[in-house]
C-alpha cells in the first residue's frame, strides 16, 4: 500500500525527486527510508514504476525496454540535477528476490555498500536492458542465483523440499 500511496500522491508528495506520469513507461523517484538525506555518501533512492502488472525482474521482457530506459536516463539526470552526482558515480540496480513485489529500481551512491547491492542479489539496470535487447525473454528463461538468510520463510520452504 505504501507504494500505491506514493504513486497516487496520497503520501510523500514532498519527497518526490522526479516523476514521469506516463501510465505505461512512467515512474516516481523518491528517497529510500534507509537514507537520512543529510549527506550524499550514502545516497539511496527508489524508482517505483507506475505499472502494477510488473512485480519483479522475472516479469520483464523486451516490451519493457522503453520503461527501463526511461528510468535509467531520467533517474540519472534527476539525481545529477538535484544532488550534483554524476551518473558514473551511481549504482542503479534491481533486486532478485525483491523485498516487495512491485517493480522498483534502486539508485545508490557508487561507494555506498547498501544492503543487497552485492552481486548475489543486485542486477545492474544497464545489464538488464542489454540482456533484454539481446533476448526478449531473457528473465523468463534464465536461472537466477540469490542468497537467502536462514530466517527467511523462502529458505524454510526450500529446506522442507529437501533443497
Automatic annotation (TrEMBL):
PROSITE patterns registered for this protein in UniProt: HIT_1 (PS00892)
Domain of life: Eukaryota
Top EC category: hydrolase
Keywords of the record: Hydrolase, Nucleus
Catalysis: reaction(s): a 5'-end (N(7)-methyl 5'-triphosphoguanosine)-ribonucleoside in mRNA + H2O = N(7)-methyl-GMP + a 5'-end diphospho-ribonucleoside in mRNA + 2 H(+)
Cell compartments where the protein resides: Nucleus
EC number: 3.6.1.59
Family the entry assigns: Belongs to the HIT family.
Name assigned to this protein: m7GpppX diphosphatase
Organism: Caloenas nicobarica
This protein's encoding gene: Dcps
Amino acid at each position: 500500500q505504501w507504494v500505491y500511496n506514493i504513486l497516487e500522491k496520497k503520501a510523500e508528495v514532498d519527497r518526490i525527486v522526479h516523476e514521469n506520469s506516463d501510465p505505461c513507461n512512467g515512474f516516481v523517484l523518491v528517497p529510500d527510508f534507509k537514507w537520512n538525506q543529510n549527506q550524499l555518501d550514502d545516497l539511496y533512492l527508489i524508482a517505483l514504476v507506475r505499472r502494477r502488472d510488473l512485480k519483479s525482474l522475472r516479469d520483464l521482457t523486451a516490451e519493457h525496454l522503453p520503461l527501463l530506459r526511461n528510468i535509467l536516463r531520467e533517474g540519472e539526470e534527476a539525481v545529477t540535477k538535484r544532488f550534483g552526482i554524476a551518473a558514473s558515480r551511481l549504482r542503479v540496480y534491481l533486486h532478485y528476490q525483491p523485498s516487495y513485489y512491485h517493480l522498483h529500481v534502486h539508485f545508490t551512491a557508487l561507494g555506498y555498500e547498501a544492503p543487497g547491492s552485492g552481486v548475489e542479489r543486485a542486477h545492474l539496470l544497464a545489464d538488464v536492458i542489454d540482456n533484454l535487447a539481446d533476448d526478449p525473454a531473457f528473465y523468463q528463461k534464465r536461472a537466477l542465483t540469490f542468497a537467502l538468510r536462514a530466517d527467511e520463510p523462502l529458505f524454510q520452504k526450500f529446506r522442507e523440499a529437501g533443497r
